[in-house]
Amino acid sequence: MRVRSLLAALPLLLLSGAAIAAPGTVVWVDSLNLDNMLQDFGTPHARATVDGNPLKLGGKTFEHGVGTHASGVYEIPLDGKAVRFDATVGVDDETNGRGAVIFSVQVDGKTVAKTGVLHGNDAPQQISVPLTGAKMLNLIVSPGVSGIGFDHADWADASITLADGATELPPIAIRPQTLDAEARIRILSPDPAPAIHGARTVGATPGRPFLFRIPATGEKPLTFSAKGLPAGLSLDAATGIISGSLQKAGTNAVIVTVKGPKGSASRSLTITGGDHKLAQTPPMGWNSWNVWGTKVDEGKVRDAADQMLATGLADHGFGYINIDDAWEDKRNPDGTIQTNEKFPGMKALGDYIHSKGLRFGIYSSPGTTTCGGYTASYQHEAQDAQSYASWGVDYLKYDWCSYNGIAKDHSLPELQKPYAVMRKALDGVDRDILFSLCQYGWGDVWTWGADPSIGGNCWRTTDDIQDNWGSMHAIYEDQAGHEKYAGPGHWNDPDMLMVGVVGFGNTHPTHLRPNEQITHISMWCLLSSPLLIGCDMTKLDQFTLALLSNDEALDINQDPLGKPAGLISNEIGIGQVWARPLFDGTHAVGLVNPNPWISKIAVNWSELGIKGKQPVRDLWLHQNVGSYADGYSIEVPAHGSVLLKVGKAK
User: Fold this and answer.
1) Tens-place pLDDT, residues 6-38
2) β-bridge pairing 531-533 and 284-287
3) In the CATH hierarchy, which fold is given to the domain comprising 566-646?
4) Considering the domain 288-557, what is its CATH architecture?
């Protein structure tokens, strides 16, 4: 059963009920062992803030208290030896008005006091809670908004009044650091039996080049066949690459089959021809920025293409090889964009990528220069689109960057203008180029990115991701509510993946812990996000490869129904439930623990709009866990996730 808050926010939080005994000995919380206090940033300080400064709330300095940071929890055993807890709480003045925190107090597992969201510079609040007979006290701070920036939370003057006759509290046992718990994942050996993965539906414009590599695994050699291919397309039986050009608009149901030494497998692939039919499912592939930054070169891009096949990731549906910033040079006298010395032959590079059945992506900006200071597309949009088409480009990331110096302001017409210009330019070439808007979510781009005049196939909803929990956590929480604006052909983009060896040119293994990486992939799949690998493809370890090749998770991302998950439950101090319907009548559910402690999280079938006994499958453990009548609950690691499929496929 879930814990429910018992109080709404009040200026003074004081519970009636059990009688509070006469004042006895007062124990300052800052005198206790704080080694068991868990938090998402920094370390707790006795009689000081998380940054080591004097505790200060509302202009008043406090001699006693504990400075901590959201998310955080402090578990204090009582064993019936206390009668009251008191504290003054708020965001410390050192943040200069920044930060937002919720304070909660749990007694024996029940939330008995909770503030509203306290922002920096808000007046502090008092909490007073009876503890007579209580066994355990939990002091919890949670982010008041997405992210944890400047969430410097003070439990000022925090004290516990002992019961008559008690002289001290029980000792605080130090528990292991749960953030470093073993990854909750089962790594499977490759299955020799053939299987088809990836998108079940693809789209293209009639008359333009078509390319699709059927993603399939199994013991090699594999051979491919297809029934019902539309006119203009052909299949290479040895590679599984479908190419050619659709002759007319319409929807075609194609049955593709793969055969190998250990059997065969078939699956339906819907091929749709028409205007603006790209990205029927979220794009999957690789982008150079998160690993190489401006140090990218042609050799690194070719390596990524080679490794996409060598590692087998192309067999799981990853298909784009995208160059980000730093390929550009100056323009010719006629205005044609030139590549720099790191990319001597862009068309040859595109041909190389296409020869593997992969697609080719590139980057630019609507301003005069890119974010890296290279030549961008301002007043050369049509020329650049023609250059991209001649090189065989299939994907354009269009990054706002220096356009700030051109736009009059951040009004909606000014935010939309440069993307409408490039949309028109892309429509004028004879090649399908997926259009990825990158302007960091300004102007609520999810509400207008798919407008026909803009024609975005995906749009960044956030600032750039970093390889740390605070960044990734803030980004996925910010997606709540955006799901209704996304669907086939147009997707919310919370930025590229941060697993493996990353670093923007100064490479290192991701700073995300293993369970945090599981949450990263789980949420990006649930949210129907573009899945663009951002790591060094030549240094893929077994764990990273297992994360990126989990077909059960990837199937959620590529589900043809195209309905991203929404946040259906968010219990402060407990966890979150994200869920989405799937095309086969089942539901994908993510039980997500944003806290730095283990938490038991539950989903009720009523929240999914279903009833009766339902089978449950755990997608990271790759096992059926049973059938349940009303719901399912499980302990979830700190910062971890449990990804489920609920229901029986039709």
Assistant:
1) 222 333 343 333 333 335 799 999 999 998 888
2) parallel
3) Immunoglobulin-like (2.60.40)
4) Alpha-Beta Barrel (3.20)
